[in-house]
Amino acid sequence: MARGNDNNSNGSLKSESAKVKINRESLHEALFLFSYLKPYRGKFILALIFIALSAFSTSIFPFLIGKMIDAAVPGTSQSLPGSTSAISQNFGFSIKEINWGLNTIVGLIFLQLTIQMLFSFMRVYLLTEVGEKSLADMRGDVYKKLLSMPMSFFTEKRVGELSSRISSDLSQIQDAISFTLAEFLRGIFTLIIGLVFIFLISAKLALVMLAVVPVIAILAVVFGKRIRRMARKAQDQLAESGTIVQETFQGISIVKSFTSEFFEIARYTKSIFSVVDTAIRNGRYRGAFISFMIFSVFGTIAFVMWYGANMIKAGELTPGLLTMFGIFSVFVGGTFAGFADMFSQLQKTLGATHSVREILRAEGESVDLAPVPLNPAYQLNGNVRFDHVAFSYPSRPDVVVLKDVTLTAESGEQIALVGPSGAGKSTIAALLLHFYEPQAGNIFFDERNASSFLLSQLRKQMAFVPQDVMLFGGSIKENIAYGDPDASVIQIVEAAKKANADEFISRFPEKYETIVGERGIKLSGGQRQRIAIARAILRDPAILILDEATSSLDSESEQLVQEALDNLMKNRTSFVIAHRLSTIRNADKIVVLDKGVVVESGSHETLMNNSSGLYRRLNEMQFEVTA
């Protein structure tokens, strides 16, 4: 059973955005976020103003609480002799000289709380609106860019990674705009206002407090970084154990048939115990960190209060001012502690921004991202010519898939492509749809080079019916209408009838409104194929591409699907990739490929007359198998 972390594990590991270093380049790259804020800059600026007002109004609360205590303690409402600080003198007033009555102060507190409530509501509401709308614009741009990327991009990227870009990375950016930015700016304002107030209260006590805070902050950052690193390691290990569970249950038939239950149990047990070991080590660090922080914070508070109590005894401070100082110190210390987490969030945001910018800067195909009608100048009759085409996939440039392929298809002809697996049949289909550019040679449509067509105009005149039909999770009607979104219900039903699909659709209680489920899981293989054929019929293409359309069906379904395909192929150029050679005996031309080279070409009768030919040998092998 194949092992490895596939899409889902990749998605899990990508769920936490990668961090990048904060430097001039990464900050400059992040400025592109503000281009999405431009349409909402008025509300964004207003939100910043409310952030500043909210921080200021919050800082008024400890000031009023301190004044309330002084008003309640007899003898402290008078100014302290000789205690005005240099800062207070420079400002021309001292907060120690402000004296109000208890009733006045409690009224001011409720006024302050009301104003703060209004400011907080407005800042949260405005930033949420700006963040949601700007991120909706960004999500739309990222999705459009991803849809316009060439097939080579999707062969190199995992689905989990692309989903992560749209979900977790953009959510990280959204959090940064709606929450982290607001908290950072509010923290800056709170820090500045808090420092001003504690120096206005007592410069001596402020210096004592600030001498201790940096030491605690630095140790908190060091401990916090180590704890977060180990937490991420545990998260990655947990994701790996989840992958093991998913792999095992997806391949449960293989596990049981090889009696490998013991092996899977041992593998899962080893994985989860590695998570346990990491979590225990992390617990030791967290325990030491929490113990240290409790000792340091409460020790600092005790020391500052002891120092302040001595200042009260010396007549340099009042109980209310010491209370005020203590609350402001908590504000300042809490803001310092919060900056460490905000710094980590900023690193994640820069990492997410870098990933999103990579997508938005990538060069996509020049496809139409809005409905555009078919331009008569690009109308196809259905003539196709491959002229000495050679091709290698971008992900495997050293493996030549097609070598000097030349073939022609006249308008209305049915061309069958046959050959062993890996011969290059599906690659020809991909080149017809212009998913890739050939490295050598040219492809012509109506004797016009494929490169001279607009991609959307070219693909608009083609229809593709794959072996593994992909239906979207909506209704049957929506899936058929994918061939022509402007089609009427009558046209959809008519296409379904031609595809031999109307009969089984009509048996469903909800008929054409029946939900097919994810990837069409609620329908059988033959039903999915006929809906895909109805979708192609509705498109009415000039060129039709069928890739093993009946290879995995039972006899009854195959007959119904083959009739539908015959209806679909009438009067249009068709390229049929087939392993069941009995289905293409009536083709106008059969092209036999082997190792990327056209080895034979002609009608069924002509090729069968070649006793040493590959086509005859393949026919005889299939006949022996079915006999």
What can you tell me about this protein's structure?
The chain has helices spanning 7-13, 24-30, 33-37, 41-72, 86-91, 102-148, 151-156, 159-201, 203-250, 252-257, 261-313, 319-361, 425-432, 455-459, 476-480, 489-498, 502-507, 525-539, 555-569, 604-608, 614-626; strands at residues 384-391, 402-409, 414-418, 440-445, 448-449, 462-465, 543-547, 573-577, 589-594, 597-602. It has 627 residues and is of the alpha/beta class. It has 3 domains: 7-361, Up-down Bundle (ABC transporter transmembrane region fold); 382-461 and 549-627, P-loop containing nucleotide triphosphate hydrolases (Rossmann fold, 3-Layer(aba) Sandwich), CATH 3.40.50; 468-540, Rossmann fold (3-Layer(aba) Sandwich). It has a 6-stranded mixed sheet, sandwiched between helices. A hairpin with a 2-residue loop joins strand 9 and strand 10. Helix 4 packs antiparallel against helix 6, helix 9 (203-250) packs across helix 12 (319-361) and helix 16 (489-498) packs across helix 18 (525-539). The longest helix is centred in the middle third of the chain and has 53 residues, at 261-313. It starts with 6 loop residues before the first helix and ends with a helix. The model is unreliable at 1-17 and 78-93 (pLDDT under 50).
Offer a concise description of the structure.
With 627 residues, the chain is of the alpha/beta class.
Strand content: 5-15%
CATH topology label of the largest domain: ABC transporter transmembrane region fold
Question: Helical residue percent?
Answer: 55-70%
Shape: elongated
Q: What is the level 1 CATH name of the largest domain? A: Mainly Alpha
Number of domains: 3
Distance between the termini: 33 Å
- Poorly predicted regions are 1-17, 78-93
Order of the strands making up the biggest sheet: 6-7-8-3-9-10
Mean pLDDT: 77
CATH level-two architecture of the largest domain: Up-down Bundle
Helical segment tally?
21
CATH superfamily of the largest domain: ABC transporter type 1, transmembrane domain
Count the strands? 10
Q: Which class best fits the helix and strand makeup? A: alpha/beta
Sheet with most strands: 6 strands, mixed
| Rg, Å, rounded | 36 Å
